[in-house]
Amino acid sequence: MKDSEKVSAYIKKHSKWSSQLAVFRSIFLKTELLEEIKWGSPTYTLNGKLVAGMAAFKNHYALWFHQGVFLKDTQNKLVNAQEGTTKALRQWRFEDGDKIDKELVYDYIQEAISNCIAGKEIKPERKQDVTIPTFLNDALKRNTGFSEAFKKLTPGKQREYAGYIAEAKREATKQSRLEKIIPMVQEGKGLHDKYKNC
């Protein structure tokens, strides 16, 4: 299924907001942005960079701007959906009965495109340190093959496994989790790989 068909299916699936999402889509399609599906929602990109998107929720529908922190937001439409967590992303929420000002929406999208072209972006901070819990560290010392394979994993995958072991309260749970992850680590897999790129 092509991305355009996936977007059509997304709009149809969210019947409560389908006419409003169709309006957003018609505005996006007047721009130079490429229509894609990312994280299950319609997303619009420029030269591989995420610019904006739309999404439907139970009680509202929204536009989001990936680097929305740089938008002037002269009409005070944007909110930080996860205050304290999200640095760049901004959302413009609409509820039942809200009128969509097509020109204003288009202006916000065009400003987001201009900002993208200008290279304005906040890059996500990458966590560098991996804290290995004692139980996992002891297992790595006992099994050199496991240790070598663990060292070859990306820091992100190492953090996933370390957190998985650290979260277990009981010794028996830690042991069963350790037995589960050893073959995965030795195959170079991440704890959550099967859920990624679906």
UniProtKB/TrEMBL annotation:
Extent of the signal sequence: none
Domain YdhG-like: 21-113
Domain of life: Bacteria
InterPro entries (alphabetical): YdeI_bac, YdhG-like
Annotated Pfam families: DUF1801, OmdA
SUPFAM superfamilies reported in the protein's UniProt record: YdhG-like (SSF159888)
Protein name: YdhG-like domain-containing protein
Gene source species: Constantimarinum furrinae
Upper classification of the organism: Bacteria, Pseudomonadati, Bacteroidota, Flavobacteriia, Flavobacteriales
